[in-house]
Amino acid sequence: MVNICLLGGVGEIGGNKILLYGKDGAIFLDFGLNLKKKREYMVGYGFERINRVLRNYLRVGILPKISGVYREDLAANEEFIYNAREFSIDCCIVSHGHLDHYGSVAFLKKEIPIAVSKSMKALIEHSIETSGRTGIDKEIFTFRDRKIEEIRKKDKTYEESVDEVDRPLIIFEEGKKIEGIPFDITPLPVDHSIPATFGFRIETRDAVIAYTSDIRLHGVVSKYTENFIQNVINSDILLIEGTRIQDSATRTEEDVKNQVITETLKKNGKLVSALVSSLDVDRIRTLIQAAEECGRIPVLSPRIYHLIKTLEEVESKVKLPRMENVKIYFEKRSIIDNGYFLESAYFRGWLKKLYEKLLNSDKLIKSEDISKHQDEYFLIFNSLQCVFELAEIKPRPGSLFIESTSEPHDEEQEIEWEKVENWVNLLRLDSRWIHASGHANREDLITIIKQVRPKRVIPIHTENPREFKKLLEKDNIRVEIIEEGGELNLDLN
After folding, report:
1. Which residues of 35-64 are buried (b: 16+ CB within 10 A; e: fewer)?
2. Which regions of the chain carry the CATH code 3.60.15.10?
3. Which end of the chain is flanked by fewer CB atoms within 10 Å, N or C?
4. Which CATH class is domain 3-247+439-489?
5. Contact between residue 239 and residue 95 where contact means Cβ atoms under 8 Å apart
6. pLDDT tens digit string along 202-254?
């Protein structure tokens, strides 16, 4: 007998944690971080709180109240899971590199294997290295036992190692069954706002399950989603995301490009800049193409450039932007040498290394150089800090600032927009929001469901699961609304 238990992503967008278990074993499909609850309760990883971070995450519901899955070095006989159901997890399979799908993996036992694709691993490692995450928060693929660290400080004769160790890792490939786990699970790429996003076809003794992960039909690789649909037709269960189940708006990547070009061409003599997620490779490629078609030189933030070079180095299959005409923005971080002293502690390791490699090339460009020829450049930034860089450049009044990102999917997008807009107004910029969502709209979600023709639909990653019931009842499609912690037995006979 196999059961699906929803431990996160229920009645909310993100924080997906799906437990699939039976007599053959148990797996997690995603183990994401609930960003909304983390913001609400301001729970973090302060140095002095390391001894109770697991307890607090359980207390406020960021982590599910189950036992047998969490790392022992952080546990202190947690009362919240003392009598909770216990599971032995064979693997945690990650669908893509957004924090709301993998961010809580750091709390899992070090023995639990993590399954990702090669490109997905590179994306996650890039995010960890460049975002400044520290401590437990970054221990997705590695592990440091905090209890042993303290024991060794107390008892100098204690011999067990405190070295960082790698978690067990399974690298899967698209279209090939994942090895070494219970159930026959085939990862199938789907279209989303980050590359290396996968849905899954899962065959169990009792049923065939399809899990969409985050999905869309209007992106540049919509063929991935179409192929996914063909591979999961007539599944018994369809676990489908519903971020935009109440939204009919549609804008394609081509629409974004055309609007960016239109707005940019209006800004003769002015600077143009854009804010984008550092992981949205499709959008980065779109903005580079738009800049070049407008006769401007694209200027990338160092973090975006680092991502593209990282994917190149692992020989990713992801379609990357052309970089021949691109320049890299040289941030001012030091107190001396006009901000460009690379030995300063304010240039973190990855950033210093990147700049040192580019120093003798013509790729780096400084704020003062952009300021002199503002109409020649199109800046592509990835975080709130861009407004401070724009202040250094001193854009001419009426210069264009494009917001090309959506709801938070990672910590870099957790932007206090009011403060950004205050800076936009202070610098007298002309602001435009130009974006295509990473998620399918209502009509596309219904299309996916009708083409798959599942026996049952389970909405997840949505604030409005009952909207599915309302929209599908006339077609006699059965929708199961499962509460958080609730489960469905897959004996469908």
Report:
1. bbbbeeeebeeeeeebeebbbebbbebbbb
2. 3-247+439-489
3. C
4. alpha beta
5. no
6. 999 889 999 999 999 999 999 999 999 999 999 999 999 999 999 998 899 99
